[in-house]
Design goal:
The protein is α+β, with helices and mostly antiparallel strands. The chain folds into 4 domains: 96 residues, Phosphorylase Kinase, domain 1 (2-Layer Sandwich); 218 residues, Aminoglycoside 3'-phosphotransferase, Chain: A, domain 2 (Alpha-Beta Complex), CATH 3.90.1200; 159 residues, Aspartate Aminotransferase, domain 1 (Alpha-Beta Complex), CATH 3.90.1150.10; 214 residues, Type I PLP-dependent aspartate aminotransferase-like (Major domain) (Aspartate Aminotransferase, domain 2, 3-Layer(aba) Sandwich). The chain is built from 23 helices and 28 strands. It has a 7-stranded mixed beta sheet with strand order 15-23-22-21-18-16-17, with helices on both faces. Helix 21 runs parallel beside helix 23. The model has no long low-confidence stretch (mean pLDDT 94).
């Protein structure tokens, strides 16, 4: 190589050192009076033209003066790019001057340096104005933010499905919120790789910028987004480091509101491109560690961005640059608008309502820039806006959506996938649109099958808002404003262990079952069904006492009734140790009712039953649901099941739920007002009591609203509304659980203080 360099450039190398590189080979060449960077590339026509264009850009910058960038060194023949035979291989080569200084990644930065870097990059971008290259304009480069689509195929190379979902989410957001505006953005020639290993600095001064290999003709704001991405992704605080850079850049090149509005998603997308390229490189060049040098920081930053409300980022940047924001949302006006169109019977959560504008996985965003940790919403089972669910719905909606009187594969495919999760006995599916509708249908089927009308229900149970659903929901019909218990309803005690009548007895489940059996024996009207949730949600997250269903189910069947398990809240792996709640009791029901998490927010419900029950129901009037089981619903439901398996979310619910419960029980030891911590997996309840060990409704309401103020969403339930219930998306993490318990601890201490002050 020494001879080749001497022959080509007239430079006698004293030493040649191989440097890190991504797609090309780089060498530090030390000569008698100077140092150089020698770069080699695969010899192709396209490579030649691009490298030559890059050299012309560097020459343009030198002609503008004051730019601290490498200078192309011409060959003896006068060209800046040529081919050389090295080790019997033809290589496309060039030589650049060597810039002294330390890489930004090797020094401790300060805010003054960040400001100088902003000014440095803006100056460079200004000086690139007036440069022109057809080769660069025609470049279709996968690192260029405007060419996001070129990276989609690399998502599959990311080994962790939980990481894949983050990338897919931001790609979807780019398509929705960025792509439509790209044609309107001002374009320029940009460096496009302003990272810590390309920037040279010392103290608070920028010394230079190297590696123009990513130069593209792209929206100018992409330059800023790339710089902000790399300058902050290894920092603990995002705004502290981005603010001085942005202010300094804006002072030289004023940014527009539309550009600022896109920055959050552009930064996230650049990070996503980076991890996609790292995954690609790991497959193609597993030995090249340099290709993945930024990966760890990129993932760290992506997780941080999910916690940042996009509105808060936009507002901060707008304020930083002295730009006016859009008109502030007035919450009272939003409430008034709602009340204009809806009855007050449709309640709003929390004393201070939340105006929600977006959500991602376990985080929800309000219109003021706040991010809420969602420890409450069990309907977005696999996470808000999960990209696989979104894509499934979008694609199928664009293809076919019709009713079940036509033949389409998705109906059978989804049914088969769902039935794989259930006992062989339960092999017939009836799709509807909600858990309420499913429970209504289940009772109708049971009454047809048995020829009887009586339904046994649990105290405090809730099974939906249809008339039949209310009839079988003691939580509703026994409410002070309720319609009262119908004659065909047989109510039995909730088999609870905490503060239950058999709390101090062995086998309380069997004793509660004995009571229910005695009621059955006194009933002279026969029995259609017994319906119960495995964990009674509105009863205060109360698990059925162990052994209860095992003792009761045989007696229900002896009376000709069907055993119905309402899994609308407890199904689909939420409980961790089991996929369905009834499995906790070691029984198999005659019907399983599902809903809510089934569609991750898309309206879906189903009744799954046996061949025998389905056959008797078929003897009656035709059953039909216009939208139950439609292709879009099936595609979404199928995606949810696939995600649960791919991301091992049942296991996650088990592990995180166990940890979450342990943290709550530690808190219980600290605070006597926590009477009980109960539940399974990520379906937990915390019962609050007063000094007399009675339900502490006031404290529960205070904590619910105080946690809301601390941007953590939980709710309350139970007969006295004294039980904190937490049932988050099952992607919840241990750190999420730690935050909930930490904020709950602080709120309990604040409750003490407020009581002291009031006294």
């Amino acid at each position: 190589m020494k001879e080749a360099i001497l022959k080509a450039f007239g430079i006698l190398p004293l030493n040649i050192k191989r440097l890190n590189g991504y797609e090309n080979e780089n060498y530090l060449v030390t000569a008698k009076d100077a140092q150089y960077i020698f770069k080699t590339y695969p010899s192709t026509k396209n490579t030649f033209s691009l490298i030559n264009a890059e050299c012309l850009a560097l020459i343009h910058l030198q002609q503008k003066g004051g730019c601290k960038t490498p200078i192309p060194i011409p060959f003896i023949s006068g060209e800046y790019v040529n081919t050389i035979h090295i080790n019997n291989q033809e290589k496309c080569c060039r030589m650049l001057s060597f810039l002294p200084g330390s890489f930004l990644g090797d020094i401790k930065p300060n805010k003054s340096l960040m400001a100088n870097l902003g000014a440095f990059l803006a100056d460079l971008n200004q000086k690139l104005d007036g440069f022109h290259s057809d080769a660069i304009r025609a470049r279709n480069y996968d690192w260029d933010l405007q060419n996001l689509t070129l990276n989609r195929k690399h998502i599959s190379a990311i080994p962790d499905p939980k990481q894949r979902r983050i990338v897919a989410y931001f790609f979807q957001k780019f398509d929705l919120l960025v792509s439509p505006y790209v044609p309107e953005l001002r374009k320029s020639y940009i460096h496009s790789d302003f990272n810590e290993w390309n920037v040279l600095a010392e103290g608070d001064q920028a010394l230079g910028l190297i590696d123009f290999g990513d130069i593209v003709y792209s929206p100018l704001i992409n330059e800023v987004a790339t710089a902000l991405c790399y300058l902050s992704y290894d920092k603990d605080t995002f705004f502290d480091w981005t603010t001085p850079f942005l202010k300094a850049y804006h002072k030289i090149i004023p940014l527009k509101k539309k550009e600022i509005g896109l920055l959050y998603y552009l930064i996230a997308t650049k990070l996503c491109i980076s991890v996609c390229q790292s995954a690609k490189a790991r497959l193609l060049q597993p030995e090249n560690k340099y290709a993945s040098v930024s990966e760890k920081n990129a993932w760290k930053m992506l997780h941080k961005l999910l916690i940042l409300n996009p509105i808060s980022v936009e507002n901060h940047f707008m304020q930083t640059l002295g730009l006016s924001k859009e008109k502030t949302v007035v919450l009272a006006e939003k409430v008034k608008t709602r009340e204009r169109y809806f009855s007050r019977i449709l309640s709003i959560s929390y004393k201070r309502p939340i105006y929600m504008t977006g959500a991602a996985f376990q985080y929800m965003y309000d219109g003021y820039g706040n991010t809420f940790l969602d420890a409450y919403n069990n309907i977005p089972h696999v996470g808000h806006s999960h990209p696989k669910v979104v894509a499934a719905g979008q694609q199928q909606m664009a293809t076919l959506n019709t009713n079940t009187r036509y033949l389409y594969d998705l109906l059978s495919e989804y049914a088969a996938l769902l039935l794989q999760k259930l006992p062989k006995k339960l092999n017939k599916v009836f799709f509807v649109n909600s858990g309420s509708e499913a429970n209504d249908l289940a009772i109708r089927m049971a009454q047809k099958h048995s020829g009887k009308q009586t339904v046994m229900v649990l105290e405090h149970g809730y099974h939906g808002h249809t008339q039949t659903g209310i009839d079988i929901s003691e939580y509703k019909f026994n409410h002070p404003k309720g319609q009262g218990q119908k004659s065909h309803i047989l109510k039995t005690a909730i088999p609870k262990e905490y503060k239950g009548k058999y709390e101090d007895k062995d086998a309380p489940g069997a004793l509660y079952a004995k009571e229910a059996i005695e009621q059955l024996n006194r009933n002279e009207n026969g029995l259609a069904a017994f319906i119960a949730e495995p964990i009674v949600g509105c009863g205060g997250q109360v698990p059925l006492a162990s052994g209860y269903l095992k003792a009761l189910y045989p007696e229900i069947r002896k009376k000709g009734g069907l055993c119905i398990s309402d899994e609308v809240q407890t199904g689909f792996g939420r409980l961790g140790s089991v996929f369905w709640g009834y499995e906790l009791q070691g029984v198999v029901p005659d019907m399983v009712v599902i809903g809510k998490p089934m569609g991750n927010g898309h309206p879906m419900g189903a009744v799954v039953t046996s061949e025998e029950v389905a056959a008797s129901f078929a003897e009656g009037v035709e059953f039909f649901s216009s939208f139950g089981g439609n292709p879009v619903s099936c595609a979404i439901g199928k995606a949810v099941l696939e995600i649960i398996d791919e991301e091992k979310l049942q296991k996650n619910a088990f592990e995180v739920g166990k940890y979450y419960c342990s943290l709550l029980r530690e808190l219980q030891k600290e605070d006597a007002r926590i009477g009980d911590v109960r539940g399974e997996g990520l379906f937990l309840g915390v019962e609050l009591i007063n000094d007399q060990e009675k339900p502490n409704t006031n404290l529960a309401q205070f904590l619910k609203n105080e946690l809301r103020n601390r941007q953590v969403l939980i709710s309350t339930d139970g007969p006295a509304d004294s039980v904190i219930k937490t049932k988050p998306p099952i992607i919840f993490t241990k750190s999420n659980a730690e935050r909930v318990v930490s904020e709950l601890r602080r709120a309990l201490k604040l409750a003490d203080k407020k009581r002291f002050l009031s006294d």
